[in-house]
Amino acid sequence: MSSSSNSANSNGRRTSLFLNPVDGLLLLVAVIWGGSYSAAKLATDQMPVLQFLVMRFGLTFVLLLPALRGLAVPSWPVALAGASILGVNLLAIFVCETFGVSLTTASNAALLVSLCVAFTPVCEWWLLKERPGAKVMVAAGLSLMGAGLLAFQHGESAGLKWGDGLIVLAAFLRGVMVCLTRRASQRHGLTALTMTAVQMGVMTLGSALLMFAVHGTTWPRLPRTASFWSAMAFLVLLCTLFAFFVQNHAAARTSPTQVALLMGSEPVWGALIAVFWLGERMTSLGWAGGLLIIASAWWVTRQERSENSPYAKNNT
Predict the structure, then answer these.
(1) pLDDT tens digit string along 111-142?
(2) CB 257 within 8 A of CB 131
(3) What is the distance between the alpha carbons of residues 178 and 176, in angstroms, rounded to a whole number?
(4) All structural domains of the chain with their residue ranges
(5) What is the CA radius of gyration of the chain?
(6) Which spans in 21-75 are helix H?
(7) Tens digit of pLDDT for each residue in 66-79?
(8) Torsion angle, alpha carbons of 175, 103, 267, 84, to 10
């Protein structure tokens, strides 16, 4: 076999110990989002949830206004409608997550949201009619086991609290979101930045309507603490602006389940941040659960990507 054939085979079927650039960005987002629960908990302790969401997404939308020029395409009405649907789904996720984290602990929220890893293969099968392979399903199961070990270390009594239940619902909606984002990016051709801008606009409008419905026109006095504004800057610039751009960019270039598995390492990073920054303690069960989640995500990223794979076609 010639050297050129070997090269082609290497490009067509490659197994590497290292993450590709898209997977590396997703992993970075998982680290950033791992710290988002503590930041959101800090901010919502100083401002009501719905007003906090209006500020968070409103500031992000203002920063992204120039990206709306990307809607200047012939199919803009259809593209706008598709991105708006994603924005509504994202709003539902963040309402559940933010109310959830305000009603439970930041560590519980970070751990329970990892159930997205187990929900996403089902959503992928349901929405995209693509049955994940056995390897992916096993990895999702391992991630679910890891999340269970992480949760069990706290010795919580049986039964979910309201906050915990909202986080579980948000985890399911995350699985739906990954699949819908991939389908929308393939059909409508908007850039990742433009899609993110539209989503932020829809989320700002939606959270404002919810705020007026619940609280009327009353607006609370803005906190003047450095902790609040530092948390808001972190959430707007990194957790929202950067993270959703990366997720939208990656969704059309890798499988929904692989996106979810990489993002599934988020609770581990959240736990590490809590241990080294907030001084929380984890048991050996917790560390074992975290290692399971990381190992399953790493395992899936090493799977061979042949040219005949439907996932490989979207990874160019």
Answers:
(1) 777 777 778 877 887 777 777 777 778 887 88
(2) no
(3) 6
(4) 27-218+226-301
(5) 20
(6) 21-34, 36-44, 49-64
(7) 888 888 777 777 77
(8) 30
